[in-house]
């Protein structure tokens, strides 16, 4: 089950203990990086959500994790950009693994789009400079 931790639900002593444990891990450890991000986030008042790949999320929870409205998430689901399954008569559930995959694809698309915009701006600048 996906769980969101906040600085108000995790005592500072436990955040310190998490930081200490992270420091005991080998340099470059992926687990150490994740635990460091958790402890830093909690220390700075940022909520941290921990979920397994097989956790099933409601659309409301998935939208909150993505930082978008539930209405927008339904548009994403209806467009087929994010996999889901139906439970009961009409309720939808999204696997955390599918949400992570969608987020990674979205980030790659945004990065490619940003590179395209930067390249176009560079070409426009070169054109304007050659006209001077």
Automatic annotation (TrEMBL):
User: Would you say which domain of life the source belongs to?
Assistant: Bacteria
What Pfam families is this protein classified in?
A: HTH_17 (PF12728)
Helix-turn-helix domain segment(s): 57-105
InterPro entries attached to this UniProt entry: HTH_17, SinI_DNA-bd
Name of the protein described by the UniProt record: Helix-turn-helix domain-containing protein
Q: Which organism is it from?
A: Kocuria atrinae
Q: What is the lineage of its organism?
A: Bacteria, Bacillati, Actinomycetota, Actinomycetes, Micrococcales
């Amino acid at each position: 089950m996906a769980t969101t931790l906040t600085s108000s639900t995790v005592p500072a002593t436990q955040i310190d203990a998490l930081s200490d444990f992270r420091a005991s891990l080998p340099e470059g450890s992926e687990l150490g990086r994740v635990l460091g991000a958790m402890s830093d986030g909690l220390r700075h008042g940022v909520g941290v959500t921990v979920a397994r790949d097989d956790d099933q999320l409601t659309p409301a929870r998935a939208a909150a994790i993505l930082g978008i409205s539930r209405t927008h998430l339904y548009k994403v689901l209806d467009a087929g950009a994010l996999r889901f399954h139906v439970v009961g008569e009409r309720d939808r559930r999204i696997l955390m693994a599918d949400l992570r995959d969608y987020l990674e694809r979205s980030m790659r698309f945004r990065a490619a789009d940003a590179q395209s915009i930067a390249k176009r701006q560079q070409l426009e600048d070169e054109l304007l400079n050659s006209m001077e």
